[in-house]
Design brief:
It contains twelve helices and 14 strands. The chain is α/β, with parallel strands linked by helices and about 375 residues long. Strand 11 and strand 12 (about 350) form a beta hairpin. Helix 2 packs parallel to helix 11, helix 5 packs parallel to helix 6 (about 180-195) and helix 11 packs across helix 12.
Length: about 375
């Protein structure tokens, strides 16, 4: 500690002024804090892990350029374990650490459970793979780059009915992500039946209870549906596909976008061959920006980004570009909405006046263990 009392008044004032300047300079170079919350363990880690990595890649790139407005970006990462109470605690901890923005969560049910905390703190929360209809059209601090479930599920229903010629289906959805899964199942069913189709079975279960899956698989086949749909995470979709196909090799199977990660084909093997899997990205894209991103992600993390990695990367880049234009975190939400459109590694990110995104649906089919695009809607 410096003892200033042995100096003259003039020297004391000069020293105090110098200390104030040092403190101010330190304050100006304090890092940005980007929080992340998502499922990094358990059955949905194939969403949370790549999403976290996509954010980290975007942050590392801007830090290599000197940061935003001369300030580096620091990341604070929390695992919600797909548990609403843990998600709330994670977000509270992030807010207590004065993060400038929160990227995540990665599932709709977690987003619904924590959005009020972000609203109360007036801190922007950028959902990653969150599409629940429950958060559509709201003037809040929750933004996302994807279209709502109602849009994607309707397009899948059109494809299944019109292109595949299927007229009946059964579906099972996971209650642990009810805000998304029930909405997807209902939206698909409503659009499919409006075209003249029939639903044979509409079932639900809670993920994490594998002993229930054999009975669910049997019930899904009651009434001889032409197609069976899994609105579940990739692990449960792979397990159910094996159980269903073991009883009926010819029935068509499909999933919602949620299961469309590399883990589905790794675990499902031959049992998911031919499965219809809608996606939020085109894995076969030859856009230069996407190829650069893909190469950088693979080199950095030694894995595929899938849709969670790409979406989180794009979302983080949009946040960064907005802060570069106006380094005011309190104005971040309004500045993103005012801009409305951002470049991304595949096409554009488009936000409406409520911060809801607009995204394409890519229908893929599993062929030789890979997702092959059938049509982009």
């Amino acid at each position: 500690m410096i003892n200033i009392y042995g100096f003259s008044v003039a020297r004391r004032l000069a020293l105090i002024l110098s200390l104030c300047m040092v403190i101010a300079a330190c304050s100006e170079t304090e890092p940005w804090r980007f929080g992340f919350v998502g499922g990094l363990s358990g059955r949905i880690s194939d969403l949370g892990g790549p999403a976290r990595n996509g954010m980290l890649l975007a942050v590392e790139e801007i830090n290599a350029q000197g940061g935003i407005d001369g300030r580096l970006v620091e990341t604070v990462i929390k695992d919600d374990q797909q548990n609403p109470e843990l998600a709330k605690t994670a977000v509270q901890l992030l807010l207590a650490q004065s993060v400038d923005v929160i990227i995540g969560p990665v599932t709709s049910s977690m987003a619904v459970s924590v959005v009020d905390l972000a609203n109360q703190a007036e801190t922007l929360m950028m959902g990653v793979t969150v599409t629940t209809n429950d958060l559509s059209g709201k003037n809040d601090f929750f933004l996302r780059t994807l279209s709502a479930t109602a849009v994607h599920a309707a397009e899948v229903a059109d494809y299944v009915y019109d292109v595949l010629g299927i007229r009946s289906f059964s579906v099972v959805y996971d209650l642990k992500n009810k805000s998304y899964s029930q909405g997807w199942a209902n939206d698909f069913s409503r659009n499919f039946k409006a075209r003249g189709g029939i639903d044979k079975q509409v079932l639900s279960f809670e993920s994490g209870q594998p002993e229930e899956l054999p009975e669910i698989a049997t019930r899904l086949l009651e009434g001889s549906p032409e197609m069976v749909l899994f609105v579940t995470n990739s692990v449960d979709a792979a397990l159910l596909a094996k159980l269903v196909r073991s009883q009926n090799e010819s029935v068509a199977i499909g999933t919602s976008e949620w299961a469309g990660t590399e883990r589905l084909v790794e675990m499902g093997g031959k049992y998911v061959e031919g499965a219809i899997v809608p996606q939020y990205l085109d894995r076969e894209s030859q856009e230069p920006a996407y190829l650069v991103f893909l190469d950088n992600y693979r080199k950095r993390f030694n894995q595929e980004p899938g849709f969670p990695g790409m979406i989180a990367y794009n979302a983080t880049k949009a946040i960064i570009s907005t802060l570069i234009s106006d380094p005011n975190a309190k104005a971040l939400k309004q500045n993103i909405l005012s801009t409305g459109r951002f470049s991304s590694v595949q096409g554009e990110l488009i936000f409406d006046e409520f911060g809801d995104g607009r995204s394409k649906t890519y229908i893929t089919k599993v062929e030789d263990g890979k997702f092959k695009v059938q049509v982009g809607l």
